[in-house]
Structures are given as structure tokens and as C-alpha cells.
Amino acid sequence: MATFFAMPKLGMNMTEGRIVSWLAKEGEKVKAGDAILEIETDKATNEVEAPQSGVLAKILHEEGEDVPCNSVLAVITEEGEEVPQNIPDMIGEEVAPRAEVVVKAGETGGKAESADAGEKSGRRVRISPSARKLAEELGVDISTVTPSGSQIKREDVQRAYEAAGGAKAPDVDADKKPFIGIRKRTAELMAESVHTTARVALNITADAEALIQARKKLEKSAGKVSYNVLISKAAAESLAVFPYMNARLVNDEIWEIKPINIGIAMNTERGLLVPVLKRADIKSIKDLQADFQALADRAAAGKSKPEDLEGGTFTITNLGAQEIESFVPVINLPECAILAVGAIMQKPAATDGKVVVKNLMQMTLVFDHRLVDGAPAAEFLKDLKNRIEDFKE
Q1: Boundaries of domain holding 16
Q2: pTM
Q3: Is 369 annotated as catalytic?
Q4: Active site residue: 224, 303, 369, 382, which one?
Q5: Which of 80, 184, 347, 363 is the most buried (most CB within 10 A)?
């Protein structure tokens, strides 16, 4: 019996996925559990496994297409079985807005008219949700868009916009990369954060000597330990004391989230990801390090699971490895605050009237003033500084 293989919904907020590549060819035998497709969401690139063994008899969507979740991507049949004549567009409920246009008969990828116009002659062409969203943003009439394939894509909308006299890229010699996937989603979230939150930044300098010594001691017994893990543990303990920093704004209510889940910003080849250390307040450093390593490995390989990137309540971003001393990051919505950690630097400092060289580390807390005032936020940051300066393994 034929199986209709649909675009999976890999996260609560996922509405569509872009087909990066088919790892199996049409007509090829596949086994249940084999990776047959690579898709890109707004968070990561994931391999999708065949739901059953058989023959990948028909592929319905090409590489580069944006396809709504639950839309049928391909048909898997038993060996010798024919492809069903009636293939549904979707399995399960729709999770993204869908739209169609009708291409006039006799035109090859030509001018399209709205399906609502009642055009009966010609073929229907789907519009990807991202293409429809871009058309709305640019004010492009979809009926003027020429589809380049079986569906109208973002690139088609952009061409129609430019053809109508819209902004056009300058004619310069440049390496051009598509503004899609993780890079585009990051841009949207950062812009939303900047335009929504009332950002305030507080700076503090901590003596990192206790942190350094604790790390050395831990590594003798437990192996490699990341500074991100140690700082996350200290931050989680401070958040437990000051729960108003582990919060978010939901409609007209401020929610102080009870689980303390620390997101760690990571730079990957595909862009910025924020894997989440779950329950950092109650887990041991050893367990947090194991979680962190697994998250980092999957992020670096582009194999992050949806649950890796969900549930964060507070984010830490560390540019110490790049020798950055301090910086002001953007709040990771819907969280209340984000902590920027700079490099540990040897610097002269006054102690008991004497100048000595210390290992100092700057931290910047950026918080949303809509949820927290300056003095309470400063109390949290001061507590965190004290925990780092008196770090206990």
C-alpha cells in the first residue's frame, strides 16, 4: 500500500520547510529509517527519514521549494505497486496559509491571475507562504507574478517587484547569497526585539580567578568543562533568587517562568543558533557539560533537534574566544534579558591600596525595562558577579 510522505512539523512554530536536497532519487529503493530528504527550517537543517521501506516512486516537490507542513512531498510504494492516481495535497491539518493562482492556458509560466477571479481555463499554481508574505510586504499583486516552476517562490515575487519599478539591487560585482532560512529568521527576530523591547544595558566587572581555578579542578576529575557551562550554572542560581529576571511578557501579564532554561548563543556555518540547557538550576555541572557538548555537536553539524532550540528563559552570549571585552547584544524574545560575557583579561586593579594584576571579566546585562526596573536588574547582576567571584564547583 502506498504511503504519502509529508513535510514534517518539527517545532511548534514551524509552518513550512525548504527542501534543501533529496538524498534518494525517484524510483530508488529506500528503507524505513533511512535519511531521504534534507530540509531547512527557520532554525536548522534537518535530515528526514523514510517512514517505511519501499520505492520512492514519485517526488512532488523540487529542491529549493518552500513547502507548508503536512503537504505531501512524495509517494513511497511497495515494489511493483503503481503510483496512486489520486494523491492528496496534504495529510492532516493545514498549519500555514495556502493560496493558489491560475496560469492562463497557452502561457508557459506566464502571467498569473488570482484564483478568486474565477478563471477556469489553465492550471493552478501554488504560492509558498513565504512568497505570499513577501508579496504582502512589498505590495506586489500576486496576479502579476510569473511562476518559475510548480509554485510561486520568493524569488518570483522579488522579480515581479523589480519589474514593476521597485527597489533593485545595484549592478555590482558581488558574491550573492540567498537571504533565507536561519539568516532571515535571525534578522526578523532581532528587528522585532529592537523595535519591541525597551532595552537597557548594565555593565559590571568580575574577578574571574575563582572561576578559572574551579574549571581547572573540575577538568582534572571530569574532563573538559566549558566556561559557558560554569557561567550558566551561576546565572541559574541567581535567577532562582531573582525570578523576575526569568520572565516574559504575555499579553497583559508578566510571567515569571519556574523552570530555568539557559540558552547559549552559538555561531554555526548556517548562522546563529541558541541551544538550550534545560533545568540548569537543578542539574550538576557534570550533567550540564554533557548536555552542552551534545547540543554544541549537533548545532555544529547542522543536526539540531527542534527541542534543542526551544524552551529558553534566559540567554548567555559569550564572545570571549574572539577576545571581545564587552558588547551589547539584542534580547532573545520572548525572554526578559540576555547576558553578554567578554574575554577574561589580565589587567591591573587596585586591591587594599596596591595595584595588582587580576583576571577580570566584563559582563553586560541587557534587559527589557517594560518588565524590570534598573535597580532590581542591578541586584541580579551584582549577585551573579558575587557567585562568579566565589564560585563553588
Answers
A1: 3-77
A2: 0.71
A3: yes
A4: 369
A5: 363
